[in-house]
């Protein structure tokens, strides 16, 4: 018989590790925010990275691999590091880097744990708000230790909808065109600058719905589980899962109305 333990990891243990590491990483990033400057750009001149993005991800990777050395990690800054430990960690060291660069509070550290491609545990630290979110698949989500339950859905015309914009001029122009057709049908729009803060805020009742094109797995994995465990439906185009093409999130009744509004507008294409 093989001596290898094939028992799947306990998602609660993964959640606890994610919480510890996100908390430490959030403290590191918060301590380095004052005076930070652009270190580099990525996909476009507006897609910036700071030295603290990289330092924070390095800390996260080192802590996760110290605890679980065989696991895989996908990070926004460091790419993918393969492993055979049965878990893949999906990491955004600072979601909302432009907010971070300008000294604003709405940015967060997001860490999710996947087993067989499914997110089973998550933590999001929003240090400048003093908030720590956590979730386990099927076990609910919490903010600062208190159970989260998103408020009931409202009609589309009464919905406060959060969104974001991409880094390429062509995509931004299309997103602006979509927005012109969305605004007349809703209460108002909010553009916060961090999908992690938007989605956890949705779970907390700070808005009623969210949509954005151009996000990546590290943007939605952790906050998406937190939102879904609070009663939010998180999906993508044509009733599918979240994707780079489009992420939509709302209470199920509102989700359908927002999805129907967005579908003919080209919200999932440039």
Automatic annotation (TrEMBL):
Q: Which residues form the signal peptide?
A: none
| Alphabetical keyword list | Hydrolase, Magnesium, Metal-binding
Task: Report the enzyme's class at the first EC level.
Answer: hydrolase
Question: Which GO biological process annotations does it have?
Answer: inositol metabolic process; signal transduction
Q: Which cofactor does it need?
A: Mg(2+)
Q: Which Gene3D superfamilies does the UniProt entry name for this protein?
A: 3.40.190.80, Fructose-1,6-Bisphosphatase, subunit A, domain 1 (3.30.540.10)
Gene Ontology molecular function terms on file:
inositol monophosphate 1-phosphatase activity; metal ion binding
Similarity-based family? Belongs to the inositol monophosphatase superfamily.
Q: What is this protein called?
A: Inositol-1-monophosphatase
Protein source organism: Nocardiopsis flavescens
